[in-house]
Amino acid sequence: MKVTVENKKGLNKDLKVFVDKKTMNTYMDEKYEEIKSSVNLKGFRPGKVPREILKRQFGKAVFNEVLDKVLKDTSTKALEENKIKPAGQPKLDLKIYGEDKDLEYIISVTELPKVEVKSIENIKFDNYSVKIDEKETDKRINEIAKNQPNFKESKLDSKAKEGDLVIFDYNATVDEKTFKGGEGKNTQLTLGKDLFLKGFDNQLIGVKKNDEKIVEATLPENFPEKNLVGKKAKFNCKIITIKNPESTKVNDEFAKNLGAKDLKDLKSIVTKQINDEYKNSLDRLSKNQILKEIEKFKVNEIPKNLIDEEIKILSQGMSDEDAKKSRNNFEEVAKKRIKVGLILNEFGEQNKIKVSEQELQAEVQKQLKMMPGQEKMVMDFYQKNPSALASLRGTVYEDKIINLIKEKAQSNNKEISKEEAEKILKQSQNQEQSFDEKIETKKAKTKKVIAKKSAPKSTKAKVSRKKTKKVSKK
């Protein structure tokens, strides 16, 4: 294979690739040997079909498969040898090709620009840590305790009131007839929450231990017995006991019930949780500071095809007229995003940042925890949508890059209070209403641009020749 670079115009290059006839024939020989052992033709034993017969029967298909393979192998190698990273799919223009002929073609490619990443180490950003006051931790723990009340048994003649826990057995009928699901033992209701049937709780207010009470309620739409939906049922309730709520004591036993070693350990856990809540938001501010600084970096030329692709994404859902009016603004946003993507990707490549399968699966698990009860749906989504999994990989990749930048850049470490953190976050929300962020809000499908990494694994020829079916090995 011989490669010569022609017609250099900025980032656009033409590469002329020449593969001699002898090499092409070698590829053809290998392909015929491959199909010879598997093709079954009447009158010939397997593996004994003469080449001329194979050529007459499959010649065109064999040549086209060989041509596709040679174009893929040689174009990829030509780009790698010339250290060209394509910004998009290269175009191939066949000049000379055919059976028992040399192969000559032109690769027209737009390459990614060279970018400088040394300046990243000079970036300055604020790195926040939040000091949580002990009172804030105690307040959070008391809120947890409040939502986990204890109950103690009431006096024998005590009447049930709102907030009490009533434990009862019941038998229910519709039109004087029992029905499936109309019986319950040791049913527990906290009066006032209305969690059983609408209006059921209120009818138990005032009952005492050992009372019997008829409660009427309409069966809901989600009742399993569909023929009873919307009908009024009578519940004959036998009150077993009534319990009054009492404040949960915040002590070591309470902490252990929540999975902590003791109260001191619980306070430490809750303090960290509160800190993490603010840290995640503040880390995003730090990341935005870094990205804004990277936007200021100089890149001499940005490939037009990447700009056009990004503008197309930004204008999704808009009419052609509105998209045309907004093109200039979109173009500025597109250039910034592409530039940031190019620089981040180059920094990632230079520092050999990779995303392992373990890291990707850990991120998937994190997504599952964020949607309790819908784990199967989320898992199915990623399994059936490779592009979604690739997007998730891109997110992990970018996060790893940003974290490494934070290590290398110049951080201004600030320890702030919870109140200061809230003030900073509120200010940032008001200040971040630039044109870029408005587009992000308006366009749900807008995605970030991360430059394509290295040369493509496969390069398909875009040529005007008829497709032929592959060789049938029957």
Helices and strands in order, then pairings?
Layout (H helix, E strand, L loop, with lengths): L1 E8 L2 E8 L1 H16 L14 H31 L9 E6 L6 E8 L13 E8 L2 H13 L3 E4 L11 E10 L2 E14 L21 E7 L13 E15 L5 H6 L5 H33 L8 H11 L5 H6 L1 H24 L6 H13 L5 H10 L1 H23 L1 E8 H14 L3 H8 L32
Parallel strand pairs: 5-11
Antiparallel strand pairs: 1-2, 2-4, 3-4, 6-10, 7-8, 7-10, 9-10
Helix pairs in contact: 1-2, 3-5, 5-12, 6-8, 8-11, 9-10, 9-11, 10-11
Structure characterization notes:
Helix content is 44%, strand content 20%. It contains 13 helices and 11 strands. The strands form 3 sheets. Strands 6, 7, 8, 9 and 10 form a 5-stranded antiparallel sheet that branches. A hairpin with a 2-residue loop joins strand 1 and strand 2.
- Provide mean pLDDT, rounded: 85
- CATH architecture classification of the largest domain: Orthogonal Bundle
**CATH topology-level fold name of the largest domain:** Trigger factor, domain 2
Radius of gyration (CA) equals 35 Å
H/E series, N to C? EEHHEEEHEEEEEHHHHHHHHEHH
Strand content: 15-25%
Task: Count the DSSP helices.
Answer: 13
Q: What structural category characterises the helix and strand content? A: alpha+beta
How far is it from the N-terminal to the C-terminal residue, by CA?
34 Å
Number of strands: 11
CATH C-level name of the largest domain:
Mainly Alpha
Low-pLDDT runs: 441-474
Largest sheet: 5 strands, antiparallel
Domain module count: 3
Give the key terms.
474 residues, Chitinase A, domain 3, alpha+beta, extended, Alpha-Beta Plaits, 3 domains, disordered C terminus, Trigger factor, domain 2, 5-stranded antiparallel β-sheet, 11 strands
